[in-house]
Design a protein that fits this description.
Chain B: Keywords: Iron, Iron-sulfur, Metal-binding. Chain B: One of its GO terms (molecular function) is iron-sulfur cluster binding. Chain B: It holds the Pfam family BcrAD_BadFG. The structure holds two protein chains of two kinds. Chain A is of the alpha/beta class. Helices cover 51% and strands 10% of the residues of chain A. The longest helix of chain A has 27 residues. The relative contact order of chain A is 0.10. Chain B is 45% helix and 17% strand. Chain B folds into seven domains: 110 residues, Nucleotidyltransferase, domain 5, CATH 3.30.420; 144 residues, ATPase, nucleotide binding domain (Nucleotidyltransferase, domain 5, 2-Layer Sandwich), CATH 3.30.420; 130 residues, ATPase, nucleotide binding domain (Nucleotidyltransferase, domain 5); 141 residues, ATPase, nucleotide binding domain (Nucleotidyltransferase, domain 5, 2-Layer Sandwich), CATH 3.30.420; 31 residues, no CATH class; 183 residues, no CATH class; 154 residues, Rossmann fold. Chain B starts with a strand and ends with a helix. By secondary structure, chain B is α/β, with parallel strands linked by helices. The chains are: A alpha/beta, B alpha/beta. Chains A and B meet through helix 3, helix 5, helix 11, helix 15 and helix 16 of A and strand 5, helix 3, strand 8, helix 18 and helix 29 of B.
């Protein structure tokens, strides 16, 4: 069955306000400026509350994943609010184009709009896969470059903030500095600047140095990494404000950056060529793109490390991490990236990990929950807890589970593990699946 | 002194330790969710009796203790963590702790890497679950344990969550299985649930410690664990108090307990929770509402001693038995409604005898049975007609509202709704396994909170701020209620909240309506649950429309059956019923035995009822063989044909050795391809055995994600089986892409089908040291496939296979695959032609290739053929339509076929589609809606059957019978 859905036409760029669901807060705040420079009027949605989930449940198949329920619920709640001129409002939603059902969000949204009585609201797709080619919203090269810059800046601000805030002498200093930089970068972006590799490389050390200048008292704290399905991982609406909860439990948090996901998506297109054949041209272009990002990324990481902060390895090293655990061919949802991030975190001292996913998330059966045993066998220091998010999963249950993980973490913090954490080599692994009973850790 | 407080979901526990950590005081009490009051009372009591105003080190633990601890600034210890503290102190040599609580199940591994596992958000609580099951069996938990000790055998009960298990237990009760056996089966289900859900691949061995209420109180449960794990676990002294003990040991901050109790007063005052508007604004509104509903009634006339002809309707439901006697004018003479106490027959016999006795001159013209126990009752007493319950309800609803367009029935166990268009049932929604509960849920909850269900429901009517409990499965509601209690919601507001939830569940979970208009404006509500005025009111408010609730809302099935009998008798001119005479009834006797059928490899557990006159009634059978003695006729069943085709691939000894293929997931379609490929290369290709319950159980301990779909979980058993077969290698490739049939925008596999080998490699210890080939392979690009296999994949495992050989093998593989698919299509055409020749209906039983697995489809294909229809598959007809636009992204090969098959159905007047959906299939959340739309657009009914590890075939049967009844009615109308 086919709907004649309204298209987002090029003219609408001038007349319509585009609503964007919130995901990675800081990155999206910056992204807004990039879109505005390009001539789009947009607004990042901040509405939350029980009406959002209720509307989602009402208009989307209840077994659909939680992010779809929330994003669509958030849109409908916004449209219901009366705040927007419905004749001049459009919606923007991401579309990954992978084998996960997430690629269908846009269609579910269109169906929901019809059901909810908003059939005339156009929906634009934000994707890098060439889907919805006839839309007036297009990821042009200049826009893409600006968007990438926003993600780099946003990732960096988050990483620095998260390593500073728990230790700062004056509460709120790190957050204040984030705000300051978002505004400053916003002005630069609106002026059409700040997005070239050169400018970014110039700016990164400035940012890092200012964070390093915040007065702190560094005491040992439990360090928690967060990985997961992309929306639930970042969105406070999706994860019941996980970051705030962890920080209230006196933890330092580490959310691996959004850029990793962008690189991962690009990388997979090349990997398809390696595994299954196809046009070599695609692979060449992808590699060039990844090299471009790599240059910027390395300078960002270097600036971070130079200022005395922890910086993970660049994407090109991340790609090596899953060897012997999961293949780089697993590319649906967050795919091998999620597994790689967990390993990265454990190696980087963030062995306590929350793996967040929507209830019944298909890829996470494989790359999240499915890999925990293997990672635990390789890295006895890992302390991973998968948490499911769902409209009815109560906060108290989720927090109980996280607290349990933290209880073990705190104990380890006070009595550090005796034996050094030594990852096994790929050869050691070649014998097959590691057995848990061979573990030597005794905490 | 140290004090530890453990506030669980149903009980509160407290211990006091002296300076030497010796236990000086302990208490274990139910709190009936008066958590706050109980905690305060306890703290004050201990202060007066034990501490005498002295301070003590205090900490709080337990699933319901967190908010409380936060509010009075007492340190909180996570409960599994405090268990661990206590165990390390008191039983230090423990390797593994199994602790079952009111609503939690936990496994704690202490040696070789500490690890804790708690039940996921999907698994129901075990203590509460056992209580719920005991209630269902009309026993106390102790009595159930005693009964279980006398068990002779056990039945299979779903081992995931309470709601599923409940829908397995109920039919067993209805079929007359022995309670002793059911009781033992329940404990076994708890064991399976704990092991499968929590161990997740990690072996439970060494010194095992059993903790918590259920394991302390039930000997049978401990024994079941011992048997399942092959160990002898111990249940230590104070096994109920370990969490509290751990909390006491962990405590490092001193408090005056009375002051803590006082601080909690403030907590009570500040409690907040999400709420809904009240059900009634004021008393007047309620009075008007009440009066309106009292007006919908059936005339009742006195039941005189000499009368007739009368028509009797009997509805043997899941928890109750209802009986209605009507006269020739449809007026009610007599009604009876009572709980069925596990076996409906004695109750019905008693009622019938009573009627005979009190009305000696009675002329019974017809007796019609309906409901879950329809067949049993009909056979036992030789009743005249059996009627599928949906049609019975529709018949009754028409009496109240001839132009009714929507009926919703919320009974004790089940919820059913149907839409009526053009005088026929056009759409049926039955609650699937995950959202049942309904009436009995409210009842169990009332009991858990210490109330009678009627009293409990009435409490909610004037609640000022009903709790917003969301709209999901009842198991989730347990924790929502827990949270609401924590937030200080009153019992009135919880009661109202639960009533609203039942309604929201029905509307948004079962029916998935987005607007009231969509369902219809002429609504009749039925079922005992609607006697609860809070539910009724919530329903009207949610729908925004006034509905009719007949005064016989709980008897509608029986009344409808009686009306049906009345109509049939008139049509047939029959004036005397075939039912047993009074004398026969007096001598009626029923013996129940359960036997294992030896008719075929399925070994169904049969329940055989033998009646006094020697007649037998057999239930639990998957085919007619134990009843008729004849083998199943599979000539019109494409599922059976596909199974045969796959079974015909036998290993051919080859020069290069042997290779094993697990017969699961994608291999249900690609076995011909890979069989030909490896055979051509000179390998003997062995497949794992066809799935069975035993095979599944053998592999279940290594399943890492308990919410994955059942077909995926089954693959662990196949790997286990292959690992014991002495093969040179096991082959299970990762396939991101499937073959492109040109029906969709892309040709992916779903993430689970694509990458499940990764999970197996990471979690199945039996693969250690084995050659497990699970490379990423692209069969969608035949040329590259040869090259990549020859260059990148095969050399990793076998030397000396040339690219030319691989080319030949690939050619054979693609050819075999094509031939296989062609056979299916040819056979499909034959079946369709033959069915048409015989004038039979054709059902497209659409799913995925692996739904052909009999352990996955539970024999639903046979169920359909036994109803006299032919069964074909979606892939046998999907090639008959061109690619067409869909409103969703059509990107999975298997699902493209589904859409195509649905489209084709709409062009064939004798063909209808039934979709099989595996529980937990995220992709089907998208496909089901699209398939429904395609079918409805083409004027077809949409039927979806959700299947899981265990599927209640009784419910499936109702569904299918309703479908056939609706189709028949449509055909009649057309004529």
């Amino acid at each position: 069955m086919e709907y004649q859905y309204p298209k987002f036409t090029p003219e609408m760029k001038k007349t319509h306000t585009i609503l964007i669901p919130n995901m990675a807060v800081t990155q999206f705040r910056l992204l807004k400026y990039a879109l505005e420079y390009d001539g789009y009027k947009c607004e990042i949605l901040g509405n939350c509350g029980s009406a959002v989930a209720q509307l989602g449940l009402k208009y989307v198949h209840n077994d659909t994943c939680y992010p779809a329920l929330l994003v669509i619920g958030q849109f409908l709640d916004a449209l219901n609010s009366g705040k927007y001129d419905l004749e001049h409002t459009a919606l923007l939603i991401t579309q990954t184009g992978g084998g996960c059902r997430a690629s269908n969000y846009i269609h579910l949204l269109r169906k929901a709009l019809v059901k909810a009585g908003y059939p005339e609201i156009p929906v634009a797709s934000l994707n890098f896969s060439g889907l919805e080619k006839d839309s007036g919203f297009q990821m042009t090269l200049p826009l893409a470059r600006r968007a990438l810059a926003c993600i780099f800046y946003g990732d960096m601000l988050c990483a620095l903030r998260n390593q500073t805030a728990p230790y700062e002498n004056e509460k709120g200093s790190a957050d204040k500095l984030v705000d300051k930089w978002v505004e400053r970068l916003g002005r630069v972006l609106l002026a059409g600047k700040g997005f070239t590799a050169k400018e970014m490389k110039h700016t990164f050390p400035l940012i890092a140095r200012e964070f390093a200048a915040i007065p702190v008292t560094r005491v040992p704290k439990v360090k928690v990494g967060v990985v997961g399905e992309i929306y639930v991982k970042y969105s406070p609406l999706g994860n019941n404000d996980l970051q705030k909860f962890l920080e209230s439990q006196d933890c330092e948090v580490n959310f691996p950056g959004l850029m990793g996901f962008v690189q991962y998506c690009a990388f997979n297109m090349g990997e398809d060529h390696v595994l299954y054949g196809g046009k070599l041209g695609t692979k060449v272009v992808i590699d060039q793109f990844l090299n471009y990002l790599d240059g910027i990324e390395r300078s960002m990481l270097k600036a971070t490390a130079d200022a005395g902060f922890y910086a993970p390895g660049p994407f090109k090293e991340l790609v090596e991490k899953p060897k012997g655990v999961i293949s780089l061919g697993a590319k649906m949802g967050e795919g091998w990236l999620l597994t790689a991030e967990m390993i990265e975190l454990v190696q980087g001292g963030y062995g306590n990990i929350v793996c967040a996913q929507p209830f019944g998330c298909l890829p996470n059966h494989i790359v999240g929950k499915g890999m925990v045993n293997k990672i635990r066998a390789l890295y006895p220091a890992s302390n991973i807890t998968p948490i499911d998010y769902d409209p009815s999963a109560t906060k108290v249950n989720q927090e109980n589970r996280i607290k349990l993980m933290l209880a073990v973490a705190k104990e380890r913090l006070n009595n550090p593990v005796q034996e050094p954490v030594k990852p096994l080599t790929a050869e050691e692994l070649a014998g097959g699946a590691p057995r848990l009973s061979h573990e030597t850790a005794n905490v | 002194m140290r004090v530890g407080l453990d506030i669980g979901s149903t009980t509160i526990k407290c211990v006091v330790l002296d300076e030497n950590d010796a236990l000086v005081y302990s208490t274990y009490e139910r709190h009936y969710s008066h958590i706050l009051e109980k905690a305060q009372e306890l703290l004050r009591r201990i202060d007066t009796e034990q501490l005498h105003g002295q301070t003590a080190l205090l900490s709080i633990s337990g699933s319901a203790g967190m908010g409380l601890a936060d509010s009075c600034k007492v340190p909180f210890v996570q409960e599994v963590f405090s268990t661990r503290v206590a165990v390390k102190r008191f039983v230090p040599r423990t390797d593994c702790v199994i602790e079952l609580g009111g609503e939690d199940a936990k496994i704690l591994f202490l040696t070789n890497g500490t690890e804790v596992r708690m039940n996921g958000s999907c698994a129901g609580g075990t203590g509460a679950f056992i209580d719920q099951m005991a209630t269902l069996l009309k026993m106390s938990a102790d009595e159930m344990n005693k009964a279980a000790e006398q068990a002779q055998r056990t039945y299979t009960i779903a081992s995931r969550c309470g709601v599923f298990a409940k829908s397995d237990v109920q039919p067993l009760i209805n079929q007359g299985a022995r309670t002793e056996d059911i009781a033992a089966s329940i404990y076994k289900a708890v064991v399976n649930q704990t092991i499968a859900g929590l161990a997740q691949g990690r072996p439970i061995q060494g010194n095992i410690l059993y903790l918590g209420g259920p394991l302390t109180f039930s000997t049978v449960l401990r024994k079941s664990f011992d048997e399942a794990l092959g160990v002898t676990g111990t249940c230590p002294e104070n096994s109920l108090l370990y969490v509290a003990l751990g909390a006491a040991l962990y405590a490092d901050k001193a408090f005056n307990l009375s002051e803590v109790a006082k601080a909690l007063d403030e907590y009570a005052a500040t409690a907040t929770y999400a709420s809904e508007p009240p059900l009634f604004a004021n008393k007047e509104e309620y009075e008007a509402f009440h009066a309106r509903h009292m007006s919908h009634s059936v005339p009742r006339v006195p039941f005189s001693a000499q009368c007739g002809p009368v028509h009797i309707g009997i509805d043997s439901g899941s928890t109750t038995v209802k009986l209605v006697v009507v006269d020739e004018k449809s007026q009610i003479l007599y009604t009876n409604y009572q709980p069925n106490l596990g076996n409906p027959l004695p109750l019905i016999r008693e009622q019938l005898l009573k009627i005979y006795k009190e009305h000696p001159g009675l002329q019974v013209a017809s007796v019609t049975t309906t409901g879950y126990g329809e067949e049993l009752v009909k056979n036992a007493f030789r009743c005249d007609y059996g009627l599928v319950e949906t049609v019975a309800h529709f018949t009754a609803a028409k009496y109240f509202m001839p132009d009714v367009d929507f009926i919703i029935d919320i009974g004790g166990q089940d919820m059913k709704c149907f839409k009526i268009e053009d005088g026929a049932i056009s759409n049926i929604f039955l609650n699937e396994a995950c959202s049942s509960g309904c009436g009995s849920f409210l009842q169990t909850f009332a009991q858990a909170l210490g109330y009678d269900v009627k009293e409990f429901a009435a409490l909610g009517l004037f609640a000022d701020r009903p709790v917003d409990l969301g709209s999901r499965c009842t198991v989730f509601m347990n924790s929502s209620v827990k949270q609401a209690q924590k937030d200080g919601a009153s019992i009135q507001n919880i009661s109202a909240g639960l009533s609203i939830s039942v309604v929201k569940n029905a509307l948004y979970k079962v029916i998935r309506a987005s607007s009231p208009e969509e369902l219809g404006r002429k609504i009749v509500v039925q079922g005992g649950t609607f006697y609860n005025e809070a539910v009724l009111r919530a329903f009207e408010k949610e729908m925004g429309v006034e509905v009719i609730r007949p005064d016989i809302a709980g008897l509608m099935g029986a009344y409808g059956a009686a009306l049906f009998g009345l109509r049939q008798s008139k049509k047939n001119g029959k004036t005397v019923s075939d039912m047993m005479s009074q004398a026969e009834l007096k001598n009626f006797d029923q013996k129940v035995v359960s036997v294992k059928c030896g008719g075929c490899g399925n070994h169904c557990q049969l329940t055989v009822n033998t009646f006094a006159d020697g007649r037998k009634f057999i239930s639990g059978n998957r085919c007619d063989k134990p009843v008729t003695g004849k083998s199943e006729d599979n000539s019109l069943n494409l599922y059976a044909y596909k199974q045969q085709l796959l079974a015909s691939y036998k290993p051919v000894p080859g020069k290069r050795g042997s290779i094993g293929i697990p017969l699961c997931l994608g291999f249900y379609e690609l076995l011909p391809f890979w069989y030909a490929f490896w055979t051509k290369l000179g390998f003997a290709v062995h497949t794992s055995p066809v799935s069975s319950r035993g095979l599944y159980l053998a592999g279940q301990a290594t399943i890492p994600s308990d919410t994955a779909c059942f077909p995926a979980k089954l693959s662990h058993g196949h790997i286990k089986a292959l690992s014991q077969m002495q093969l040179d290698a096991i082959f299970y490739p990762c396939l991101t892409y499937n073959v492109d049939e040109g029906l969709g925008d892309n040709h992916y596999n779903c993430p689970v089908v694509a990458y499940y080998p990764e999970v197996l490699a990471g979690n199945c210890p039996e693969l250690e040291g084995k050659k497990f080939i699970y490379d990423y392979v692209g069969i969608h690009r035949p040329k590259d496939f040869v090259h990549k296999m020859a260059k990148n994949v095969l050399p990793k495992y076998f030397g000396g296979i040339s690219e030319k050989e691989v080319q030949e093998a690939a050619d054979a593989a693609y050819a075999e695959y094509e031939a296989h698919m062609a056979k299916i299509r040819v056979k499909g055409s034959e079946i369709i032609d033959e069915a048409r020749r015989q004038g039979k209906r054709i059902i497209v039983l659409a799913g995925r290739p692996y739904h052909v697995d009999p352990e996955v489809n539970h024999g639903i294909d046979h169920l359909i053929t036994r109803h006299g229809a032919a069964v074909v598959t979606e892939d046998s007809i999907s090639n008959r339509v061109e690619k067409f636009p869909t409103s969703v992204l059509n990107q999975w090969t298997y699902h493209s076929r589904l859409y195509a098959a649905a489209k084709y159905c709409t062009t064939q007047k004798d063909m209808d589609l039934v979709q099989l959906v595996s529980f937990g299939c995220g992709v089907d959340a998208i496909t089901t809606d699209e398939t429904r739309e395609i079918l409805q657009e083409g004027g077809k009914l949409y039927t979806q059957l959700k299947i899981d590890e265990i599927t209640n075939l009784g419910a499936v049967n109702i569904r299918l019978r309703s479908l056939f009844a609706a189709l028949d009615e449509r055909d009649e109308d057309r004529r």
